Amino acid sequence: MAEGPDGGVWAWVMVGALFVSSGFVFGLMRSLGVFFVEFVQYFEESAQAISWITSIAVAAQQFFSPMGAALCNAYDARIVVMTGGCLAGLGFILASQATCLAHLYLTMGVITGLGWGLVFTPMVVSVMGYFTRRSALALGLGFSSIGLSSFIFNPLFQLLVEKYAWRGALLIMGGLSLNIVPCGALIRRQKQSKAPAKVGKLSVFVERPFLTFCAAITLFNAGYFVPYVHLVALSRHVGFSEYQAAFIMSVTGATDILGRVVSGWSAARGCMRMVHILILWTSLTGVFIILLPLSSMSGSYPVLLTVSLLYGFCGGALTSVVFPVVPQIVGVERMMGASGLVQLIESIGGLLGAPLSGFLKDVTGNYLASFVVAGSFLLLGCLILTTLPRFFQCRDPPPSSETFLG
Length: 406
Fold this sequence. Notes:
406 residues, mainly alpha, Growth Hormone, Chain: A, 15 helices, 77% helix, disordered N terminus, disordered C terminus, symport, transport
């Protein structure tokens, strides 16, 4: 490692770079719900058809993450991330000129998603390379910008849509995405481990712990992004104004920040196993997703707002501990390749989750079934995680050079 096992000056510079880049990746991704109703009205398409825009973007980001990891192994991670930032911005800029949904699928979906895929995994692994014991805290701080950007971007883009229409707002989003480029320029080449000849063999595919983890994360992914696609539409469906709906997403982003920091801090204390912390936050997130449409039935804005706050906190908390679990599953040496493969596999859930919710809304006429099914995906994923070897032990097994749980 370049600066020591748990920090160094440049380690925290990289945490800052992750803070900015993840804010512009996932903050913008989460803000796409502001455009949902606009696209439904402009293109006169169903909720299911519009939902594919965000789903393709999410799935593309995860599907192309292994390519980002592979390119980092072959070339310089700095160049990969900077290229990803350019592609992310280009996708939004081209989307501002779209004349049909297919154009949005290609631009906002594939091109922007490809750019995000080249940014996220290289940035995460670059940061984790500087930390061991405090990796969850570092990621929690780095990812806290996702909640902050969600808090800022949702009302901002609602204002931009009203002032410049959706085309102008997308053009501005493209310009904002280019801020990822200088974040990539901060990456330094780190020393590579000489052990991982097995990484090239992709031997993780024959290891049950890795496959179990991937199955659970895929289910998490199928439900996790549904509120970011449909919560604004749900709020407007039950009678709240555009700005009230956007504000709900904003405050969800605010508690997301707190959840990430609290989760990372508690994980760094080592009071619980990382995988147990992951299940705790994920199960609570699933429950609150189910409660979102139920709370809206009362017609009370404070009730929906309260449940959204709790959902944001728990949803943010779970993301801080997903990637620190990966080296415990496959070993530190295979972390880069395995992190990319996890995102490749979980992209299936990201691709299908929001369109399924849109389909359920089209069939039932409301969002109850959409959110109940989404929350159930997270709870089912938690049950699958309990089948990991040695899951019920209170302490992690002694680490080996290959796998911590297998």
